[in-house]
Structure formats: structure tokens, C-alpha cells
Structure prediction request, 331 residues.
Amino acid sequence: MRHPKVRPDAGAVTAAGRTDGTPAGTDGAGTADGNPYAAADSVLVQVRARLPEFTGALARVAEHVLSDPAAAARATIVELAERSGTSPATVTRFCRALGFDGYADLRLGIASETGRGARLAGWTVDIGREIQPSDPLGRVLGQIMAADTQAMHDTAALLDLAEVQRAADAIAAASRVDLYGASGSALVGGEMQFSLHRIGVPAWSWIDVHNGLASAALLRTGDVALGISHSGQTRETIEMIAEAGSHGATTVVLTGFPRSPLAELADIVLLTASQPTTFRPDALSARHPQLVVLDLLYIAVAQRTHDRAHSAFQRTAQAVAGHKTVRDAKP
Prediction:
């Protein structure tokens, strides 16, 4: 079984005072992979992505920053410590965990990001607000739209296009592609299998762990296994990806957590963000960002197999054309 090293700071911040050696004002990973949406100084995206890693006092600081970023950007280190029920030393440790030299640099990064948000006409105003039983559907719709839009923007900022390209190259050249997922992730995998199948890529989606493990055992070098799990902790998906990797298949995972057990098994890691709302926890709210990333991957595969994909798409469309109702022409 292979255990490639996963990049520890996918979607990491790059700002003045960073300790990662990236010069202030550069685009970091966004420049390297040509991603125009990569927000190099996206502090809040990084905090949100790494929230499950923080415990105790560090988690309280992170949660307070996410609950009111604008207030955090205005607060002194003592004020932030008091409001989060921690200490200035804890806030300093939090800054260093994010790669900053000190609190002043963290404040600068948050202030820059909240300033950009304020210029977006206030469409994010209700993100994080609890949906009440008496809320009119218009307001609920606004909250869902705002949360999903923010999640997709955050996903675009996190996404490493070089990794998407690697995954597309592997799928385009594969003789077989397996997709694994459980529950909601299985639905997302099924969408990807349908898309790949329509352009002539031999793809199978497995939701039963026994069938998935049996299929994974038959994969070999040159094949691709793609696992989907927002948490990266779904045991069945981990087992199927591990089995596929042990037989030489290229393993790709789509997850929200770059240090999760699933991500640590993979050759290629594609990251998504989420914005949970009432009745839509992380796993459910991650569905649209997951579909966006997989749509991008599907199009990238189609680009690489253009003639074959175009021909297959035409043939499959023609095969089902007779099952569509045709309106009678008006006299």
C-alpha cells in the first residue's frame, strides 16, 4: 500500500509575515497552477478547512474568528483572547499554526479578506444564521444561495489545478475507472460515472463495499480509483481506495480535509470547501462544491479525449433520441 505525502497546507495562506518562505504579495499556489480563483491570502478558507484539527483553546479561537471575522480583524490580541475565552499566548499559537509570525499579520490577512467581502454588495450577510421555523422561503432561499456561492468560491480558492490536470491525464489514459462513495458521496460518484460513461470512458460506480472491494482487487497499473468522502473518514471508502492502490491503480480522492485518513492514502487529492446551514451539515452542504470539482475534472478529461468524447457523446445522444417526446407542429 502506498502512502504518498499529502501537501500539508493545501489552500494555505500567503501574506506578509508568513513563515513558509512565500514572498508577501505573491499568489503562492494560485500562480503555480494557473488558478485565477486561488485566494493566496484566504485566511478564513484555511481556518475553516483546518477547524477539525484544532482542539480545546485553539478551536475556540478559530470558531470565534469564523463567527465574526470583521470583529476579529478590529480586535487587539487581548480582546480576541477574552472574547474566545482563551489567552494571548493561545492566540499567538493559533497564528503560528496558520503560518503567521504574529497576530498583526493575522489581523492584516483577515481585514483584507473581510474588506473584499464587504465590497460584494452584502450578499453574504445571512451566512451562518440559524434558519427559523417562521422564516419566509425567500429568506431561506437567500441563505442557501449565499452559503452555496461562498462554498464554491472557497472551493475554487482551495483547488490545485495541477492536481486536477494530473487526475484528468490519468483518467483519460485509463483502461478502467472505479468510483467509490457512501451515502450522499455515492450519489455524487454516480453523477461522475454517468458523465464519464457518456464520453466513452469505462467507469463503474460502487456503493456496496463488498462489490467495490472485489472490483478494486481487479484494478492494475494504469487504472484509476476515485474515492469521494467529505470527511475523509468513511471507513468503506478508505478500504476500497487502499485496496485499489495496493494493486497499482492511481488513487484520486475528493475530500474537504487534506490530512484525513483517506487523503493520506491518495496519489492525488482534490479539495472542496463547505458552508453548513440549518438542516444541511457539512457533508450535505459540500455536495454542490463536489459536483463543481467533478464537472471540471470531467471537462478536462473530455478535452484530452476530444475526438473520442465527441463521437461517443453524439452516438449516445442519438441512441436515446427516440425516447424523447416530440411536440406536434402547430397548424
